[in-house]
Amino acid sequence: MSAAILSTSAERPATDALLSIRKVEKHFGGRPVLRGISLDVAPGEFLTILGESGSGKTTLLRLIAGFEQLDSGEIWMAGERLDQTPAYRREVNTVFQSYAIFPHLSVFDNVAYGLRAKSVPHGEIPARVTHALGMVKMSEFAQSAPSRLSGGQQQRVALARALVNRPRVLLLDEPLSALDANLRRQMQVELKSLQREVGITFIFVTHDQEEAMALSDRIALLRAGQLEQVAEPREIYGHPTTAYVAQFIGQTNLLHAEIRDGIASAGPIEWPSTEPAGKGTFSLRPEAIHLCSRSRAAADGTAHFRGQVHNQTFGGAMDSLEIDCGNSYMIRARIPTPGPLHGEQEFEFAVRDIVRVREGGD
Amino acid sequence: MYSRAYKASVTIPPLVWVTAFLLIPYAILFCYSFWSVSSLQVITHNWNLQNYAQLFRNPLYFTVLLRSIKIACAVTGLALLLGYPLAYYLSFHATKRKDLLYQLVIIPLWTSYLVRGYAWKTILGSTGVLNGFLQYLHITHKPVEFFLYSPFAVILTLTHIYTPFAFLPIYASLEHVPRNLIEASHDLGASPFATFRRVILPLSLPGILAGATFAFVLTLGDFLAPLLVGGSSGIMISNIVVSLFGAAYNWPLGAAISFCMLLLVVTLLFATERLEKRYTIS
Question: At A345, phi and psi to the nearest 5?
């Protein structure tokens, strides 16, 4: 647990950080919701807080926005204590899950709301609102009533309403979860390019690991109020530090192995390992497993095992296999369209693809 | 789709009720307003507009009507001034005591109107609680007479009686203000006061209109409070209607005044309903 935080803090020293969350604790009615959260966010970063419902991710976002007060710890932004500033004085804007568009104001007035609240000169407002609506492709709806807009359009207005204020940090609370799948993918692409365009730091909350991987510079995986791992998407996928991370992000096989004399063995599967002797859990992604042709000699750095294909599911580009390696030791694999497989087959995987993970929560 | 029999069975009873007990009496009253009373105290069916003309010609009626409107305006204003902050506090700040406080507002409505009227009589009278208290504290040396039997007493009593009617729709509208809109307003940099002015107040406007309509219409038609605590200077238009239908035995004039009042109230209801629709957001 602490290793993940230490390694991130080491990568991004607090002096570089725009937003610095330090040892934040939050309880609701005696029940801990966030426990010892420490996280630094760099300027211009797209950070995703990923977690199951109830993991505390929305609470963390609400603490940054100022809608909740923390019980202990500190939140700093650009050298100032953010957690002691009232919400309306924070240079942070939020895109709400439910959009929270003001129903009694036109689209234009919704977007202008923040500028007027902060007494931006009158002459400046129309140009900035028009520009913000242009960024989200909603210019033609400026005079519309919000009730006439679809969910996706309201989402765009909410985005423009937040961005027009040029916040230092934009908080997005599952903003795409209410949209249908197609619109959602389209908005993901737009959101990412918008973030590059404006260069504002985005903190994005989601429970969708694919969305997190597609959008983020870094992912902070939250589990039951604690940070499980904070890393870049490729890193968190390729080198999950715990069994929970490996299972939450993508699919995996968890192998409980015995390591002795540089060889790890889990059931009938064996591979060379530099881990110290003893017991250990390893994660092996299904797509790291390949079919191996009998004739080919065993290459260095690969491990082989034999197994019966127990179940084969056609999946378009990739087939999902359940391989019985003997004594009902099941391994899942995803292999590019091998055609129907019968009888015993030989499989291989690169030893660098099998990753040692820690078990349990803490 | 509902069958014709079903539709008829749900629409006919209320239709009969409204026709028999509302439309027909009103129609009869309307006819009366064009008749007149002979010197022998007999109502004669000669159609004329004298009753309506008298309403505007006789300064007594016009003064009392004007006073009634003034009292109604004052009560409406006071009921809103008392009801809104109370509803605001209950909706946004009372957490644990919310239900208790809500009941405390509602319970007086279960008490008979007459009892509450008499209560004010004992409080405001020359030997009443208020005067006794003021004399005990040596603030005054003899009973203050204008407390009771004055427009002041009527306004006080009616404000007490009709504030819950203003409070209830305001409270309902405040409860319907989505809380995330308030968070969004703070998030966008609006201070709590600016949030109230630009989000909460506009969104509770339908409730304010409904509450104001209740307080105004109920006060305008009230005749018990002026009867109990109003005295001669606190007489309202309904007292005149009551006496015209009673002791004065001038039903035609009473009917004419009633119809003018009805017209006033119906116009007001239509106007506020249109306004409410305009400010209600689906």
Answer: -125, 160
**Which phi and psi (to 5°) does residue A139 adopt?**
-55, -40
Inform me whether the pLDDT recorded for A15 exceeds 70.
Answer: no
Q: Is A65 on the interface with B (CB under 8 A)?
A: yes
Which one of B183, B194, B281 has the shortest CB-CB distance to A117?
Answer: B194
Give residue-wise pLDDT tens across range A68-98: 999 999 999 988 899 999 999 999 999 999 8
Residues of A (336-355) whose Cβ lies below 8 Å from B: none
User: B199: which chain A residues are within 8 Å (Cβ-Cβ)?
Assistant: 102, 104
Kindly state the DSSP code that residue B198 receives in the 8-state scheme: I
Signed CA dihedral, A75, A79, A82, A84: sign only: positive
The CATH number corresponding to A251-357 among 1.10.10.60, 3.10.20.340, 1.10.3080.10, 2.40.50.140 equals 2.40.50.140
**Residue B69 has what DSSP assignment?**
H
HEC profile of A211-254: HHHHHCCEEEEEECCEEEEEECHHHHHHCCCEHHHHHHCCCCEE
Residue-wise pLDDT for A314-331, tens only, equals: 888 888 989 988 877 889
For the segment A240-265, the average pLDDT, to the nearest whole number, is: 91
Chosen from B181, B182, B185, B188 to mutate, greatest number of chain A CBs within 10 A: B188
**Domain limits, chain A:** 2-240, 251-357
pLDDT band at B256 (very low <50, low <70, confident <90, very high): very high
Question: Which chain B residue has the Cα nearest residue A120?
Answer: B189
The shortest CB-CB distance from A104 to any of B186, B194, B202 is to: B202
What ipTM score was computed for the predicted complex, to two decimals?
0.83
Helix (H) or strand (E) holding A333: strand A330-336
Q: In CATH, what is the architecture of B50-279?
A: Orthogonal Bundle (1.10)
Q: Is the pLDDT of residue A285 over 90?
A: yes
